[in-house]
Design brief:
elongated, mainly alpha, 63% helix, two-stranded antiparallel ribbon, two-stranded antiparallel sheet
Amino acid sequence: MTQFADTASPLDSALFRDAFGTPRMREIFSDRSLVARYIEVEIALARAEARCGVIPAEAAERIAAACDIGALDVDRLRRETDNVGYPILPLLHQLVAQCGEAGRYLHWGATTQDIMDTADVLRLRAGLDVVAAEIAALRGILADLAVAHRDTPMAGRTHLQQALPITFGYKAAIWLAMFDRHAERLRELRPRVLVGQFAGAAGTLASLGEQGLAVQQAFCAELGLGQPATTWHVARDGFAEVVNFLALVTGSLGKIAYDIMLLAATEFGELYEPFVTGRGASSTMPQKRNPISSELMLAAAKGVRQQAGLMLDAMVQDLERATGPWHAEWMAVPQSFVLTAGALHQAKFALGGLIVDAGRMRRNLGLSQGLIVAEAVMMGLAPHTGRDAAHDIVYAVCREVNERGGTLAEALARHPEVTRHLDRAAIDRLTDPANYLGMAPQMVDRAVAASRAQGG
């Protein structure tokens, strides 16, 4: 039975954790997973050094066989970490004891930050794999929406006012293109970020003499990571890039969420999140159906944006080892990944079952009595009168509709300056919003084709 969690964070809360995150991402950034990564890195270092003849091969074999996360005294590890300020020395106290005589070769030539940074890179790699899979799934959902509603007309809105007709497929294609770019960004950042960190106390590998770079290369290869050109103890652009990438992803999710929430408002009624009994219910208003997934996506976007700023601040580090900015990453990186995973999960739910009310979209197109296509009338009249004159004529007719009521078509049909050049059939054709979609459907075709060509 689920118990109340001993945490002050909603990311680990028994009540809120699956609203703001996912079990898989929480596991990647859990304490147990982090310590397991520390041990994995220490074993990889021992194997690399044995391969380079720096430590005995049998010592590396013993270290790999003996290090056991299950045998750790976690309470002791917590107490010593609190005292030391870092977890590696307290962890080594116990691992050395587990390894017996071979323990003397543990952590040979390394510094605490080498182990912690490399462990974090391994976590980043696992987290980015999850994000990549979620983005790929979301792109498929968005492509399907764009195709299904390629020709579904709706009001395009600027400054929250009806502007010109678009299609819902066009809107979905814009969303899709954002995530195509995110998939491209993710592929590009991996080689820059997924590199190991093994450089010693001041980053010069001095403790290993002439073998330093060879051990570093073997160490990175052991973990499937790239070898950096230089030490990055205080060069934190890689980690900052990852979190700012996550901020871009959640920022796009926030934009989609905002669109859904606005268009789900009673006065619009064009989009709705999937119906699930009780979801989004109010404790006092039985009629409510709140867009919960969109609200959570928007909240995550705001949260990750703050962590992105923190990561940029943490880039300003002193000399060859930072006095505090490094620690800020310990807060920002896990939270950013968990929030991003949660937001992507909510997006797949909301968009995968999105209810599109095409009838309401069409009715809303008629709210302005045709004024939404005043530009179409102006452009249809311009070849006969010139663009400026056409603008003035249609502007005056629009004011008449606003003041006296009726439709734009009716008002146009009463004006000699218009009927001199356009008959009623032409007026009706020009004032039908479905006839003024521009290249919106063709843009859908281009966006979907480009997305499918890009693949995962």
